[in-house]
């Protein structure tokens, strides 16, 4: 299910990050009494009155400075505004209406989105009459809040969720594998999708998806039905998207949550970047099956060890995802393109695989006999029993006499033993420790 999006915007130092942390329920954004602290958008999930949504914090908007960093922050905020279903526009009630507030207001009117104006730093009810000058900005919903103390936040969120669109999901057959193709700009995502569709020589029809302007593309290959999950803007080329080098993590997030398998496209010629790890981390935490596809391999100056070296580089950068297979292709020439969908099907099957309890416990027993869990402060740790409780991804509960004494390194050992014995290529697995009484 694709969740609606709420973006928090405003000029620097009005309390956006403090409000973000209060809505998210944890201290995620960096809060410091200096303008420009939030450099890039920060993401979390919010929930109010049973309605869940993605929440984006943005850097402070400024318009009279041509500094490169300020320009970058402005582009990031513009991306967030375009993606958002509802925008919380934060202003500083103590300092009053400023010229920059008016500039931000004009930008939001042009965006034609639902805007809720949060007049922040209204720490005492006697200050609430100061909000009236902000009606000049032309927004209907104007609410006094104190992000520091939480006053007014309930009224604010009531107004926000009242305007969120209902989430609708396209239904596909249970056997259909939903695949998203993600990665930084210019790594060849669209070329790969087009090559996959063209190589199968199928007639495809667009199906309206959950994300605004999304198009999911069905295809059938080798007897298997797939859906390529597209996201808002993947096919769209606008000024904002052409001028920013930063990949929209929110787009990846919204595609990932609707997918069974995520293809993460890396640039074989340009190498691995920090943003690749950020996007891969989202797929891993979401519990999706993953295939790394190293594109533009035709443009790499190679010898007989180049592929091995790059594979080791992938393993080094994505050590937390050692389970994910790596393919080397060229979307431009079609080199090894025939390997992609069969590998996607393979990891999708592993992602949905259920292991019998008897087999699972035999593997766990062999592992504990080979390497027993270490004693802690004279207390002997005993692994008692294991059972699989979910798929997509596989989730396994392991019962122990005292779960709190089981060190994370031993849990990692058990995971490695399960992978060695049972495979689980391409999918994370979730191991959860419980006591027998639980």
Layout of strands and helices, then pairs:
Elements: E1 5-9, H1 16-24, E2 42-48, E3 51-57, H2 68-83, E4 86-92, H3 99-111, E5 114-120, E6 141-144, H4 153-162, E7 177-182, H5 189-200, E8 207-208, E9 215-221, E10 224-229, H6 239-243, H7 249-256, E11 261-267, H8 274-285, E12 289-295, H9 306-317, E13 326-328, H10 340-351, H11 357-370, E14 383-390, E15 395-400, H12 408-422, E16 430-435
Parallel strand pairs: 1-3, 1-4, 4-5, 5-6, 7-10, 7-11, 11-12, 12-13, 15-16
Antiparallel strand pairs: 2-3, 8-9, 9-10, 14-15
Helix pairs in contact: 7-8, 11-12
Main sheet?
7 strands, mixed
Which series of helices and strands comes N to C?
Answer: EHEEHEHEEHEHEEEHHEHEHEHHEEHE
User: Which CATH class of the largest domain?
Assistant: Alpha Beta
**Averaged pLDDT:** 82
Could you give the order of strands across the largest sheet? Answer: 8-9-10-7-11-12-13
Subunit structure: Associates with the 50S ribosomal subunit.
Binding site for GTP 2: 183-190, 230-234, 295-298
InterPro entries: AAA+_ATPase (IPR003593), G_ENGA (IPR031166), GTP-bd (IPR006073), GTPase_Der (IPR016484), KH_dom-like (IPR032859), KH_dom-like_a/b (IPR015946), P-loop_NTPase (IPR027417), Small_GTP-bd (IPR005225)
Family: Belongs to the TRAFAC class TrmE-Era-EngA-EngB-Septin-like GTPase superfamily. EngA (Der) GTPase family.
């Amino acid at each position: 299910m694709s969740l609606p999006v709420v973006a928090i915007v405003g000029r620097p130092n009005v309390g956006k990050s403090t409000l973000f942390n209060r809505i998210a329920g944890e201290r995620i954004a960096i809060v410091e009494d200096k303008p420009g602290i939030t450099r890039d958008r920060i993401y979390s999930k919010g929930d109010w009155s049973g309605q869940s949504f993605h929440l984006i914090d943005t850097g402070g908007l400024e318009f009279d400075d041509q500094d490169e960093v300020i320009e970058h922050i402005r582009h990031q905020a513009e991306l967030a505004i375009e993606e958002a279903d509802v925008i919380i526009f934060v202003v500083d009630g103590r300092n009053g209406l400023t010229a920059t507030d008016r500039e931000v207001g004009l930008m939001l009117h042009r965006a034609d989105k639902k805007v809720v104006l949060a007049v922040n730093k209204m720490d005492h009810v006697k200050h609430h009459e100061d909000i009236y000058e902000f009606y000049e900005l032309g927004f209907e919903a104007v609410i006094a809040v104190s992000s520091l103390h939480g006053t007014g936040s309930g009224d604010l969120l009531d107004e926000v969720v009242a305007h969120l669109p209902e989430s609708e999901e396209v239904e596909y057959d249970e056997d259909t594998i939903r695949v998203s193709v993600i990665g930084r700009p210019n790594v060849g995502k669209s070329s790969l999708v087009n090559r996959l569709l063209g190589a199968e020589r199928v007639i495809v029809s667009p199906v309206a998806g959950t994300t605004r302007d999304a198009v999911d593309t069905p295809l059938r290959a080798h007897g298997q039905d797939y859906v390529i999950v597209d996201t808002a803007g993947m096919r769209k080329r606008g000024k904002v998207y052409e001028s920013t080098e930063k990949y929209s993590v929110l787009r990846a997030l919204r595609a990932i949550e609707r997918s069974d398998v995520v293809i993460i496209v890396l640039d074989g010629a340009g190498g691995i970047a920090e943003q690749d790890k950020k996007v891969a981390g989202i797929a891993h935490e979401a519990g999706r099956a993953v295939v790394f596809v190293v594109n533009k391999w035709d443009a790499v100056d190679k010898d007989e060890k180049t592929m091995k070296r790059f594979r080791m580089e992938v393993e080094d950068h994505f050590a937390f995802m050692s389970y994910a297979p790596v393919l080397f292709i060229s979307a431009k020439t079609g080199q090894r393109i025939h390997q992609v969908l069969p590998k996607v099907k393979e990891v999708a099957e592993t992602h949905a695989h259920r292991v019998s309890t008897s087999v699972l416990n035999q593997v766990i027993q062999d592992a504990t006999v080979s390497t027993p869990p270490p004693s802690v402060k004279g207390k002997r740790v005993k692994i008692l029993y294991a059972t699989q409780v979910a798929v997509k991804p596989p989730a396994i509960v392991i019962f122990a006499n005292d779960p709190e004494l089981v060190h994370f390194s031993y849990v990692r050992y058990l995971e490695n033993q399960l992978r060695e014995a049972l495979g689980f290529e391409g999918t994370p697995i979730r191991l959860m420790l419980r006591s027998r009484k639980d």
